[in-house]
Amino acid sequence: MLAGKIAVITGAGPGLGRTLAALMSEEGARVVVSARSRDTLEKTAAETGALAVPADVRDAEQVKALARTTMERFGRIDVLVNAAFPGTHRKNVLDMDPDYLELWRSAVETATYGTLLACRYLAPYIIDSGGGSIVNVTSMSSRTGYAGRSDYATGKAGVHLLSHCLADELGPSGVRVNCVAPGWIASDTLTAWMETRARDEGTTFQAIHDHDVSRMALRRIATEEDVARAVIFLASDQAKAITGATIDVNGGQQFT
Q1: Which residues pair with 6 in a beta bridge?
Q2: Whether the Cβ atoms of residue 9 and residue 24 lie closer than 8 Å to each other
Q3: Domain ranges, residue 215
Q4: What are the Cα distances from residue 87, in Å, to 28, 93, 109, 111?
Q5: 127 shares its domain with 50
Q6: Domain annotation covers residue 106
Q7: Are residues 89 and 44 in the same domain?
Q8: Distance between CA 102 and CA 113 in Å, rounded?
Q9: Are residues 69 and 181 in the same domain?
Q10: What angle do CA 205, 199, 15 make, to 5 degrees?
Q11: Do 49 and 122 share a domain, yes or no?
C-alpha cells in the first residue's frame, strides 16, 4: 500500500510508534522515525530498518533539521504521521501545583504545538513531492473528558480540530490531513492501569478487564496493529479522496 513512499513518524518510540514503523516498512515505505529519546529511537530504528532522527517536536529548529535530514537522505516526503505521546499525569485541577502546571503545559505543547510544527516544516516538502498524506494520531479522549486527564485530553483535542483546519488549508495543494483516534490499546501500560484500579477498588484484574470489555461493541481491546493499519490506510492512495476525517479504533467503546 505504501510502495515507494517516504514516511516520517514523530513520536516513534516503543509501542505504537515502533509498530507503525515496522508495518509501514512491510508495506513498502522507506521510514524515518523521530522522538526525543535517542536510545529508544535507535532501538526502534534497528528493529524496523528505519532511519532514526532524534527531535523534540516542540522545538522548531529540531523539526526543521528532521525535515532537512529526510530530504538529504531520500529527496522527498510523501507521508507524515504525528504520533508523539504527550503523557498524562492524572491530577485534578484543584490539586495542580506550579510544577504540575508546567507538566500540563508541556503535554499540550507536545501534542498540539508539536503537531503544528511538524506540519509546518514538513508539509512544504510533501507538496513539492506532488502531494501526499498527513495522519495525526489523536485519541478517544479528544472527544470525551475524564477527571485527572485534562493535559492529555486537551492536547489531543487540539490536534483534532487543528487537523480539520489543515485539511482545508492544504487540500488545494494535494495534501490530505486525517486523524486516527485510538481508544484503549492492549499493552503492558493498560494492564498495569487495570491492576491499579483493581487494587484501589478491592477487586480482581479479571473483573476490571471483563467489565471494561463488556462496554465495547466488539468485546475486545484494540491492538497496536489495529491502530497502525488504520494509519496506513489513510496514508495510502486507497484513501486519496478522504481528508478532514477521523477513524475511531476503539472496539466500539465510543461511537461518533
Answers
A1: 30
A2: yes
A3: 187-220
A4: 31, 16, 11, 9
A5: yes
A6: yes
A7: yes
A8: 15
A9: yes
A10: 55
A11: yes
Indicate if 160 and 71 belong to the same structural domain.
yes
Give me the amino acid identity at 243: T
Ordered alpha helix ranges (H), 109-180 = 114-128, 150-170
Active centre residues (catalytic): 152
Residue with cell 493498560: 190
For the chain, what is the domain count? 2
Whether 36 and 61 have beta carbons less than 8 Å apart is answered as: no
Residues 208 and 142 in one domain: no
- CB distance 151 to 104 below 8 Å: yes
Q: What pTM value is reported for the model? A: 0.94
pLDDT 10s digits, 209-242:
999 999 999 999 999 999 999 999 999 999 999 9
In sequence order, what E strands does 74-210 have? 79-82, 132-137, 175-182
pLDDT, one tens digit per residue, over 112-140 is 999 999 999 999 999 999 999 999 999 99
**pLDDT at position 115, please?**
97
Residue 1 lies in a domain: no
Report how far residue 194's alpha carbon sits from residue 185's, in angstroms, rounded to the nearest whole number: 12
The beta-strand segments (E) located in the chain are: 6-10, 30-34, 51-52, 79-82, 132-137, 175-182, 246-249
Q: How far apart, in whole angstroms, are the C-alpha atoms of residue 225 and residue 27? A: 13
Q: Are 153 and 212 within one domain?
A: no
Q: How far is CA 122 from CA 12, 66, 104, 106, 191, in A?
A: 16, 9, 26, 22, 36
In terms of domains, do 106 and 201 share one? no
